[in-house]
Amino acid sequence: MTAEVGLLNKTAVALAADSAVTISSGSNRKIYQSANELFMLSKFHPVGIMIYGNANFMDISWETIIKIYRDHLGTTEKPTLEDYAADFLQFIENNHELFPEIQQQRYVRIFIHRLFESMKYLILEKFEEKDTGDEDVLKEIFDEIIDHFYKDYQGRESLERIKGKAITSAAVNSYKKKYLNLVEETKKIVFEKYSISSENNKKLESIAIQFLYKNIFPSHSGIVIAGYGNVDVFPKLNSYIIEGISNNILKFKKDRIISIDFSNTASVVPFAQSEMVYTFMEGIDPAYQNLFEKNVGLLLNMYSEMFVDFLKKNTTLDDKIIKKQLLDKNDQIIEKFINNLTKYRRQNYTDSIVGIVSVLPKDELAAMAESLVNLTSFKRRVSSDDETVGGPIDVAVISKGDGLVWIKRKHYFESELNHHFFANYYRGCYE
Average pLDDT per run of 10 along the chain, which is 431 residues long? Predict the structure, then answer.
């Protein structure tokens, strides 16, 4: 995991990212504090990019993909930040040299195998809880789990294509034609010991194909693109969730779209491990807030149950009608209670901080972005949790006139010994 943040006002956008990366291999896990997660998207124009989640995409590091795209982009300038983002996504989707069909097949095989394994795990876990060796019980659980996934996936929305195009029925048929044999092979491997009915066979095939083009992201990368297009006066930030490519179609969805204008003068946007930024902005830990709101509802409902039981024993009133009315009132009370707390937090915490961010100069914007990431790093350091946030913090400020300026930037080498690196890096920038 990692911690990243973007701070935007009408002057600039500041990006900050830590250096922690978690490498997993089976049950083993190792955390390194030297990863690069913040990059220039263009050497010539004011656009930057941050990466979180999976460090690799389709077995290629994001750093490599970004730098290949940067060379591809060259000096080309885009009208808006959205155009840069769309061009980057299209570059990934259309680059069949980086992501050939054989690699797409491998991606599908791995993720379908994980999907079926997770279903099998749920089936066996529930069967063990029943503490019976009855095969009929196992069959019932098998039917129940598969039906749950089937209905869940049927209700999910299909993902949009780049620039708002929709997944067509022809594309869905193409998925089936291309990958049904692979799904069948994987299904036999995972469920080889089980007798599967023809109905469940069809459901498993449907689940696997829908997994490839619907809003389901079990293991993904996040990308954050921020800065300015040629016609953008104020900075913007677009973030996306990305998982893989199959059938030559990129599986992604929009996450957050932030635009600064005269009505929205500032924004603080955390990514990945964001609980400390949320706590700083809202005055309460998000997990504690969720627990608090949940227990207020439970408390009211418990009180209502006790009150109805009392009425049932001591009066002739219809307890079912009274219980329904009380529960309906509880929902209204809880909603009003939460709205009042939210209003208080906004007025006394969030709005005042955002108001200050809206007038911060560039250097202070960068300092605040770094401090927010440091806050999460410090929390991890002094708690019993793994230090999944840490290491040097890279900080960049992007403004319309100055472009991307590094405030802090780590290198894996000594700068004094590698003048040729910087000569090559900036080659062409002075022409």
Answer: 92 94 62 87 96 90 95 95 96 95 94 94 88 82 92 90 80 92 93 86 94 90 96 97 94 95 96 90 88 85 77 70 78 86 89 94 96 90 78 95 94 85 74 56
Contact 11, 399 (CB under 8 A): yes
Consecutive H or E run containing 32: strand 28-32
Tokens linked to 143: 């039917």
Return the amino acid letter for 425: Y
Q: Spell out the alpha helix ranges (H) of 283-413.
A: 286-314, 319-345, 351-357, 362-382
Q: Please tell me the pTM assigned to this model.
A: 0.88
Instruction: Write out the two tokens for 207.
Output: 């689940």
How many C-beta atoms lie closer than 10 Å to residue 262's C-beta?
7
| Lookup: tokens for 236 | 């913007």
Give the residue among 142, 100, 119, 274 at the shortest CA–CA distance from 208: 119
Angle between helices 198-213 and 135-155 (to 10 degrees): 30
Q: What's residue 430's pLDDT? A: 60
Cβ–Cβ under 8 Å, residues 358 and 10? yes
The pairing of beta strand 266-272 with beta strand 47-53? unpaired
DSSP β-bridge partners for residue 56: 61
- Phi/psi of residue 7, each to 5°? -115, 125
Q: Are the CB atoms for 267 and 234 separated by under 8 Å?
A: no
For tokens 């099998």, name the residue: 120
Angle at CA of residue 33, ends 379 and 63, nearest 5°: 120
By the 10 Å C-beta count (0-12 exposed, 13-18 middle, 19+ buried), 134 is classed as exposed
